[in-house]
Design brief:
There is one protein chain. The protein is an alpha+beta fold. It has one domain: 2-Layer Sandwich (Alpha-D-Glucose-1,6-Bisphosphate, Chain A, domain 4), CATH 3.30.530. It has four helices and ten strands; from the N terminus they run E-H-H-E-E-E-E-E-E-E-E-E-H-H. The strands form three sheets. A five-stranded antiparallel β-sheet has the order 1-10-9-6-5. Strands 2-3-4 form a three-stranded antiparallel β-sheet. Strands 7-8 form a two-stranded antiparallel ribbon. A hairpin with a 7-residue loop joins strand 2 and strand 3. The chain starts with 10 loop residues before the first strand and ends with a helix.
């Protein structure tokens, strides 16, 4: 299992226990058709998604605002440990190619999925290069947005 130590000066963390099995949380994160149904907090939506689930593979999605404006995001998968850990970054594109992000701050996401009773201990960590990037991401609504998206993931996967 990939281990990452949180740096409170640079990282944002969302940690919860959910009543969905780890393999269902993994499927929701790694199946484009499922990810599109929960990934973006309503009233926003995810209208496109492409995932190549291997180190160096793409993790791309397009979010649509309630006004109909599209926001494409391109990233690179760094770690894909089935039912356990998914790590991707917006700082790299497919094939580990460095890229400039339009939002002004690239970040790396670490998704930890651990069995907890019949459910899952879910941890999402957003890793930033500096404190100002962390602050910008926090002010964009990291905790509220990622928390709402997790609620949507749980609701979706309870029906699968």
């Amino acid at each position: 299992m990939t281990v990452y130590t949180v740096n409170p000066e640079l990282d944002l963390v969302l940690e919860r226990t959910v009543d969905v099995a780890p393999e269902l949380v993994w499927r929701a994160w790694t199946t484009p058709e499922l990810l599109m149904q929960w990934f973006t907090p309503k009233p926003w939506s995810t209208v496109a998604c492409e995932i190549d689930l291997r180190p160096g593979g793409r993790f791309d999605n397009t979010m649509r605002s309630p006004e109909g404006q599209d926001f494409p995001h391109s990233g690179c998968i760094l770690v894909a440990e089935e039912n356990s850990t998914l790590v991707f970054t917006s700082g790299l594109g497919p094939g580990f190619r460095p890229q400039i992000t339009e939002d002004g701050f690239p970040f790396t996401a670490v998704i930890r999925i651990e069995p907890h009773g019949t459910g899952t201990k879910y941890t999402a960590i957003a890793i930033h290069a500096d404190a100002s990037a962390k602050k910008s991401h926090e002010e964009m609504g990291f905790h509220e947005g990622w928390g709402a998206a997790l609620d949507q993931l749980v609701d979706l996967m309870k029906s699968h």
